[in-house]
Amino acid sequence: MFLSLFQLLPTAPYHVIDLGGSTTAAGLFLGLLTYASALSAPFTGNLGDRVGQRRVLLTVSLVLAGFTTVYAFLGDYRWMLALVAVHGAVWSALLTSSGAYMTAAIPPSRRAEGLGYWGLASVTAIAVAPPFGFWVYQFGWRLLCAEAVALNLVMAVIAWRLPDDRLLDREAGEAAGRPATPAKLIETRALGLSIALGLVSFAYGALTSFSAMFADALGVSPRSLFLTAMAAAIVVARLGLGRRLDAIGHRNALLPAIATATAGLILLATARGLVTFAISAAVFGAGFGLMFPAFAAYMMNHVPSWRRGAAYGAMIAAFDTGIGTGSSTMGYLIDRIGFRSAFAIAAGLAVLSLPYFLVMEKRLGFR
Question: N or C: which end of the chain has fewer CB within 10 A?
């Protein structure tokens, strides 16, 4: 699913411009998808809890194949922007259901480790999909869409062949006690605590958009150094320390991970050259890479199995809102106060994440 999306995201802006859209309109393609995903995730997550995660995975894969087919034939960029907002809502259902299904499939004793490996799918796709997508795009937008449709259909076949997630819950003894009446639409406790994730993901959104420009300002080459070092640190941290997350306890792993990511941002705001720039990327990547699986495993241990989708929806809502806000506001901050001060603000928000988590954890009844 990530291979499909991360081929569309970098190439669609070029197609928007080819259709007569402005640079601003091209940027709206990613922005609308991200915000639509964030706003709808608390609701679409609940959908999988009600009808089954496997059923949602199968249905959404087919719907996304239909959307991508429509993209191929649209001749007006405004229709593309209208469709991508709906696309984002459907995409959130895919994210929440896949996360909830993976949680059901992974043994509880290795939950954080497994979720960390699952998260490497997006990291790998970010590295592989864009260059491949641009290579296909040179042969035409419709060919790119056809290839993305094929990937969506492969997703549908995989979902069709998966065991039913409710069967997995029964095998794990986690289905007992499921209420006969539907639960509330939004998992508000999970949403409240997940704001801690959003405070750190603000920086992630800013970094994906502006770390290369900061590298240029520092005279650091290559300009992609931060993102490359960050991605490498995420992979190394999850493969090297992933097995320890469950052993030491998800909360015990989460708090140092947040602190480490925050330290990386502080280092970035004070970076003066290649060495400190690269170190800040590695430190941030290591902390950020362990933060999400530790948080997700912690959350899944505190919600019943039949509320996993809603809880994932809450996490994705906070996470994507942070990313979208960081990427969309950092440019304004840089123009007004410069790179260092702007990244210092991102570091300040990350600093707030830890005390926020500790206070809300108790207030929302997680401890």
Answer: C
